[in-house]
Amino acid sequence: MQTENHDMGRKPTAKPALPCRIALVNTSSRADEKISRYLLDDLAEALPVYARLAGVASPELAYAAPGEKIDACDTVLLGHTLRDVAAAQEIIATQVVPETRVYTLAHLRDSAGNETPPRFSQMEACCEAAGARWMGGLVICGDRLVRVAAGAPRMGWKRRWVSEALDRLIVALLAGSSFDEPAARPTLLARLACALSAR
């Protein structure tokens, strides 16, 4: 008795390989590099934990400065401010090799929403020109509140709004999938903490 095979003649669909090596590149100018570094460090610390929980191998993380070679990395995460978008685009144009996944982690000074988060259409265009794969980005709003939250517990009420947004980006990085969500804005409790700390 023969069993009908409905899959005969179909070509198997190859799943994209999961990231193996991620470059973390801080493209912020000197005035803002500490916050970019803090956000990248926070993500780097949490990523292996999420990889273990997901049962996947944790990608190797490599910090790189602008100008350093990152061609051995299959994924690049660019940390920068709104004012430093041009520097991030320069990295894509000159250092990223074709087929590399590119994500961005941006942060803004204004926490009240008066400063418009960047539209990443130009970053996407840079990736297309370089043959890279634009995967999306996260915008953290409110540098002053990020500083206030830095010493608090990672999932405490002062810092949670940042940590949860970073964790969602981590999940996308580990899966090699696109990331597209609204900017992460501070909660009312986080804003109150900032106001109290300023007294």
Give a short synopsis of this structure.
This protein is an alpha/beta fold and 199 residues long. The protein has one domain (21-197): Rossmann fold, CATH 3.40.50.360.
Summary keywords:
Rossmann fold, 199 residues, six-stranded parallel sheet, alpha/beta, 6 strands
Explain this structure to me?
This protein is an alpha/beta fold and 199 residues long. The protein is built from 6 helices and 6 strands, in the order E-H-E-E-H-E-H-E-H-H-E-H. The chain has helices spanning 33-54, 85-94, 121-130, 143-149, 160-175, 188-197, and strands spanning 21-26, 60-64, 75-81, 101-108, 133-141, 179-180. Strand 1, helix 1 (33-54) and strand 2 (60-64) form a beta-alpha-beta unit. The longest helix is centred in the N-terminal third of the chain and has 22 residues, at 33-54. The N and C termini lie far apart (83 Å).
CATH superfamily: Flavodoxin domain
Could you tell me the radius of gyration in angstroms? 19 Å
Mean pLDDT: 83
For the record, the CATH architecture stands as 3-Layer(aba) Sandwich
SSE layout and pairing:
Elements: E1 21-26, H1 33-54, E2 60-64, E3 75-81, H2 85-94, E4 101-108, H3 121-130, E5 133-141, H4 143-149, H5 160-175, E6 179-180, H6 188-197
Parallel strand pairs: 1-2, 1-3, 3-4, 4-5, 5-6
Helix pairs in contact: 1-5, 2-3, 4-6
